[in-house]
Structure formats: structure tokens, C-alpha cells
Amino acid sequence: MGAYIIRRLLIAIPLLFGISIISFGIIQFAPGDPTTLLMDPTLKPEDQIKFREKYGLDDSIPTQYRKWLGNMLKGDFGTSIVRRGEPVSDLIVKRLPNTLLLIGVSTILAFIIAIPMGIISAMRPYSKRDYSLTVFSFLGVATPNFWLGIMMIILFGVKLGWFPTGGVATLNSPFNIWDRIHHLIMPAFVLATADMAALTRYSRSSMLDVLKQDYIQTAKSKGFKEGKVVLKHGLRNGLIPIITIFGLMLPSLIGGAAITEAIFSWPGLGSLFIDSAFKRDYPVIMALTTISAVLVVLGNLIADILYAIFDPRIEYKGGS
Description:
Strand content: under 5%
CATH superfamily of the domain at 95-310: MetI-like
Radius of gyration: 24 Å
Oligomer: single chain
Number of helices: 12
Number of strands: 0
Shape: globular
Structural class: mainly alpha
CATH architecture of the domain at 95-310: Orthogonal Bundle
Mean pLDDT: 79
Distance between the termini: 11 Å
CATH topology of the domain at 95-310: MetI-like fold
């Protein structure tokens, strides 16, 4: 297992390198740059030239990339161009806990709701209950996060007043855990919806295969209750394929978090990325793109490791 992990990490190096080149190129070839978005009417042409020289915007694209890569490998993501030279690392550290909280809660929410729904659906296939859950799953997959978020804000935030419409906490109020949870409920649910729907379908399909196995039928023939047979004998094997979904969920969670954070004014990395993209803040965009790529690679590696832990039939070898 150790050799396999090392090999996967080594393979990830050229992958991340390629992602950084493509991302940097896309950013550079996009129309406009930070200087075109400066709205200060007192900015003189000579000041604009000094601004471009300060941040190396007049250098060739390979030179800019080489400088960025060298600094990034040293742990220096540079300084924000449009935020008065604030270090990018400081911006990320400030907002990272909010994004981790949102993604973590939404992931847990998706699993604890979707897996029981999938099991219930598999226990009575093609019943009214199964069809109802299937319709719910398809609606969850087909509904865009931004539309669901806006509708929830209108209904539960504006009309009913049950939840705050945005932010991470009530302004100018002391820290309160219930206030934080109150602000977290709607964005976490919106972010979890798409993955929740997909997990329900995966859970149902996996459990249907397991419930047809001979050892399940044998356990039922011995007089064990159906619920006990499903939970004790079927659930462990039925959940093995679901574990791999965790790694595949990370890209959608990271991408969905950006949209969800923007809708709910959640001060996380997603909203920072969108704001930086509109303002052409190159160092921030590249830092967040790199971090997202690393998280996706690690997520897939963790999924493979969990798969081997839960399924003793799987054995990873360093040379295969």
C-alpha cells in the first residue's frame, strides 16, 4: 500500500504541473487585465505603467509563469493585485475555514440522507416508495444549485423569515454556535443536493446487487429479520462502491461551493475565486486553482485507500 501511495503521488506531480500551465494560459489569454479594471480616475498613465512593472504584467507569458512557479514551489503565492498587495496566503487562510466547514457539513449531510434513502429504495424495488425516491433523485440531479439557492432564499429567507439570506453569522454580534448553524443550514443543503441525489441512486443500485447474493438469501432463510440482514450482512458490502464516490464528489463540491458561496454571500474560497476572476486578480486565481487541483488528486487517492481498507479483496501493489 505504501509503495502504491508513493507512486500515485509521483504521478500527480506532472498532472498538477500540466493543470497549472493550462490554467495560467487560459487566464493570460482572457481579454483584459487588472489595469483595465482600475476605476481610479486620478490614476495617471505613468502610474499605470509603474503598476504593470511592479506586478510583472509586461513580462512575457513564459517569464510570468516561471516566476509564479518558482515562488509557488517556495510556498509563496504572491500578493493580490487588486487588494492593495495583501498576501494571497493571508486571504486563503482567512476564508479556508468557512469553505471547509461548508463542504464538510454538506458532505456529511449528503451521506446521512442519501444512503438510508438508497437502502430503503432497494429493499422495495419498483414500489411506490422506490418510484418516489427515484423522482426525488432525478430532480436533485437536474436542479441547478444557483436556482435552488435563489428559490430557498426567496421562500425561507424573505417570505417566511426562517433563515438568514446570507453571511456566515449575524453582523456585530458575539460568537454563537446556534447562530452559525442557522446561517449554515441553507447553503449546506443546497451544496449537498446534487451529490445527495446521485448518492441515492448509487446506494440503491449497489444494495440491489448485494441483496440478490446467496449469503443474504441464506440469512433470510434462517429467520433473521429483514432489517437486521440488510444492516448487518448487506450494508458493509453494499457501501464499498459508494466509498469511491467520495473522490469523485470533490470536483463537484469545490465547483458547487463557488456558486453556493456567491449566492449566499458566504465568505469562503469559492466567493473569493469568483470575485478574483471578475477583477483579473491573477495570483489569487492561480493559487485557488492549484489548491483545488491538489484537493481533487488527494480526494481520489483517499478514495482508493478507503476502497482497499473496506474491501479486503483489493490489494494495491507498487509495481502494478
